[in-house]
């Protein structure tokens, strides 16, 4: 089963807490602090697995988490680092932030492994806070919390050439004729439900990849039918073969079909609509010269209008606009060799580089650490700003605010967790009071 889109939740590991302990050894009086540091939390990586070609596995498992770092121990023992998690995806998968839709990383080209979330740092044990005036510090630093993020995975297939066209115009038949692919083929009024890839062997070690994309219908750019599920696969193509039913077997006008599909490509985006197109007029073997007489002459002979073949009509419409038109038959093979030779020549002249989607969002820069929520608000009755929450309470329990280092750690904590910024957004001024679980501070910049 094919799946080209999934939404998952990823989470890095929390850093282990630093430890508070003191040496307790026989014959060693006044043992100093020996609390060890917490271990680092595990990171979250995405890695390319060339054996995968679908995102179906993510339909069954949607949460992925690295493990937490262990807390530090006595005798300066450092906690064990958390294990990283490596999430395997097919080549060509684009990872996006679910909230903004911005690209985090495109797992294509030379990108085979990418760290998305960094685990929390382990906290310092109390051994780090001993000074000449504070020889027995009774606090340690908490480990940094984990980060979590909801991401969207989109598989944008990597193919040189894409086949576009309405359902039943012969795209699957064409792919089976020119490549090693074996798609299901039948005269269905519906369409291929998943993309098929085929490699066209040109000999002498030369080849190119063709993707038979699900048949487009009017309104696809607005989400109708397969909609965006189809259109995203076009984005990496260097060239499009626009397949038309020249014989109008389904009763459709091939010229009208061409314009309808290009309207959908234009709606989807300029990048897609600007991809060069070659028109493939298929089913020439099924064209029937069926012209009704328009009059009778003096001798009783039927008078027929001038006959213009469907191929002549298609060429007259599109060749003046710069399109190349290739009449072919997937049933007899007529015209296919000439078309493939031309496609290969065009690909040689186009850019060799793969289409790569640039990163627009770095979670480690923009994403706040995930933890129990804290609250910052102004209490009018107390005429004070209040900061509270489990994270705050835990930090205060570990921190000796009477020491210089402890108070410096407290200030860094307030800044690093965005609390100072929130206070400033609420309008705090110098000299105002901030309360936290029984502590009161005067605010100064």
Search tags:
445 residues; alpha/beta; Spo0b-associated Gtp-binding Protein, Chain: A; Rossmann fold; GMP Synthetase, Chain A, domain 3; 3 domains; six-stranded mixed beta sheet; five-stranded mixed beta sheet
**Please, how many domains?**
3
Counted beta strands:
20
Radius of gyration: 33 Å
CATH level-four homologous superfamily name of the largest domain: P-loop containing nucleotide triphosphate hydrolases
The overall average pLDDT, rounded, is: 83
Q: What pattern of helices and strands is seen along the backbone?
A: EEEEEEEEEHEEHEHHEEEHEHHEEHHHEE
Low-confidence stretches: 183-192, 223-227
Spatial strand arrangement across the major sheet: 10-11-9-12-13-16
What characterizes the major β-sheet? 6 strands, mixed
Helical content, roughly?
A: 10-25%
Percentage of residues in strands: 15-25%
Q: Helix/strand/pairing class, anyone?
A: alpha/beta
CATH class type of the largest domain: Alpha Beta
CATH architecture of the largest domain: 3-Layer(aba) Sandwich
Please give the count of helices. Answer: 10
Q: Say what the CATH topology of the largest domain is.
A: Rossmann fold
Q: Would you kindly provide a brief summary of this structure?
A:
This protein is an alpha/beta fold. The chain has 10 helices and 20 strands.
Structure description:
With 445 residues, this protein is an alpha/beta fold. It has 3 domains: 1-156, Spo0b-associated Gtp-binding Protein, Chain: A (Distorted Sandwich); 161-349, Rossmann fold (3-Layer(aba) Sandwich), CATH 3.40.50.300; 375-442, GMP Synthetase, Chain A, domain 3 (2-Layer Sandwich), CATH 3.30.300. Helix content is 20%, strand content 22%. The protein has 10 helices and 20 strands. It has helices at 171-178, 227-231, 254-268, 270-273, 310-318, 336-349, 363-366, 390-398, 404-416, 419-425, and strands spanning 5-11, 44-48, 63-65, 85-89, 93-97, 103-107, 113-117, 148-155, 161-164, 196-203, 206-212, 239-245, 277-282, 295-296, 302-303, 325-327, 375-379, 384-388, 433-436, 439-442. It has a 6-stranded mixed β-sheet, sandwiched between helices. A 5-stranded mixed β-sheet has the order 3-1-8-5-6, with no helix packed on it. A 4-stranded mixed β-sheet has the order 17-18-19-20. A hairpin with a 2-residue loop joins strand 19 (433-436) and strand 20 (439-442). Residues 183-192 and 223-227 have low confidence and may be disordered.
